[in-house]
Amino acid sequence: MGTKKERTGWDDQELEASVDAYLKMLGLEHSNQTFKKADENRLLREGPLSKRSASSVEYRMQNISAVMEQMGMSHIVGYVSAKNVGTGIGNRIRKILAQRDIEAFRKEPTQASQHFTYRLLEANTPQFSDTPEGILNPNKTSSAAIRYSRARWITDWVLKHSRGFCEGCNQAAPFLGANGSPYLEVHHVKHLAQKGSDRTSNAVALCPNCHRRCHHSNDREAFTLELYTRVKRLERE
Ligand SMILES: [Zn+2]
Ligand SMILES: [Zn+2]
């Protein structure tokens, strides 16, 4: 069944919508808030997944659980990991997850060599004339498709604005990403899982070390406070 579904071709927008809905639910679960899987499923099918059945959306969510598990992340309790995630679909889901700030969901810190949180600056990043407005409350937005494309602008803007320097330690990005751009990761200073906004006033470009420091160090709170003084555009939420 799984492979057949893959051949029917979920496009990137459908997969991104699934991943974002998944992360929204996981965020709610992490902050002990309730949500109904069935409602989220229906919402997706009323929007970006209008071509899909309830059971295929459910199955996709189980795929995402499986990939999260492979990445060392916790997953939504209600979505048991699907056993047979095709490599193609698994890789695509992984790639999308790697573009999101999911560090807050990591089960436990891993070694630096096991990085996977790639957020590569795309070659065709648009030119920004103004600071994009962003989203005050990403969890509350109902129009999934619009939210995702706007959210992408925020990460692109933040990466571009950094000019390749970590906003935590001011060092140059430690290496170039696969596309040749300086490798930095976008971090939400108040985590999305804690209802932080997806705006440039809540997002910074960090080197992998500083990013891990924000999530896992024993001085993460003090380090986070320093970010607010160091990066002028940040606003406390
Ligand atoms: Zn740094
Ligand atoms: Zn982060």
UniProtKB/TrEMBL annotation:
GO MF: endonuclease activity; nucleic acid binding; zinc ion binding
Pfam families: HNH
Ranges for domain HNH nuclease: 153-212
Origin: domain of life: Bacteria
InterPro entries: HNH, HNH_nuc
Listed name of the protein: HNH nuclease domain-containing protein
